[in-house]
Amino acid sequence: MKHEESTREHPARKENDINHIRARLDELVDELDRRRHEVTNVKLQVSRHKTPIAIAGGSVFALAGGITAFSLWRRRRRHTLRGRADRARGALEQIAKHPDRVVAKVRERLGPQVFGTIVTTLIGFLVARGAEAAIGAGYARWGRRLEAQPQAY
Q1: What end-to-end distance do the CA atoms of the chain give, in Å?
Q2: How many angstroms separate the CA atoms of 108 and 102, rounded?
Q3: Are 95 and 102 in contact (CB under 8 A)?
Q4: CA distances (Å), origin 105, targets 15, 112, 117, 119
Q5: Rounded CA separation 134/140 (Å)
Q6: Which of 36, 78, 119, 152 could crosslink 83 through cysteines, CB 3.0-4.6 Å?
Q7: String of b and e for 108-134 (b: at least 16 CB within 10 Å)?
Q8: Which residues have CB under 8 Å from 44's CB, separation 6+?
């Protein structure tokens, strides 16, 4: 008989345990839902964290202002006589320290310019030769005629 009582109590105890676990899970889900609503409530977060938000906003504003002021100061300074002299001195120091780099940069920059100059010269030469070839017979005749006639001064 004891065996029958233990089997009857066993399902009842399991059901009680299940109900207890279910109630605990309901409490946890309710708490998570409440916290989710708090986290997504912007007004509540701003009211809770006024000081850190103000510090972060002020820091961003100060950083942006500082960068702007520095760039303006640097631009003004570069256009002064002293700024130009400093840049020239720095360039001469680089030439003295690393002449091979300077030569490489000059070749890199002058290459396209020299190529463009050569191409432009060749195109001009070819256009002139083409014009001479197209009208060449007339030029040759006129030149001979003018040479054959005596020039009066």
Answers
A1: 155
A2: 10
A3: yes
A4: 84, 12, 19, 22
A5: 12
A6: 78
A7: eeeeeeeeeeeeeeeeeeeeeeeeeee
A8: 38
Kindly report, residue by residue over 30-82, the tens digit of the pLDDT. Answer: 999 999 999 999 999 999 999 999 999 999 999 999 999 999 998 888 888 88
For residues 140 and 22, give the distance between their C-alpha atoms in angstroms, rounded to a whole number. 113
Distance (Å, whole) CA 76 – CA 89: 18
In the chain, which ranges are E strands? none
CA distances, 52 to each of 46, 48, 56, 59, 63 (Å): 9, 10, 6, 10, 16
Per the structure block, which two tokens stand in for 22?
A: 């279910």
Residues 39 and 45: beta-carbon distance below 8 Å: yes
**Are 137 and 131 contacting, i.e. CB atoms less than 8 angstroms apart?**
no
pLDDT, one tens digit per residue, over 102-129 is 777 777 777 777 777 888 888 888 888 8
Q: What is the DSSP letter of 152?
A: P
Measured between alpha carbons, how far is 28 from 62 in angstroms, rounded to an integer? 44
Q: Report the alpha-carbon distance of residue 15 to residue 21 in Å, rounded.
A: 10
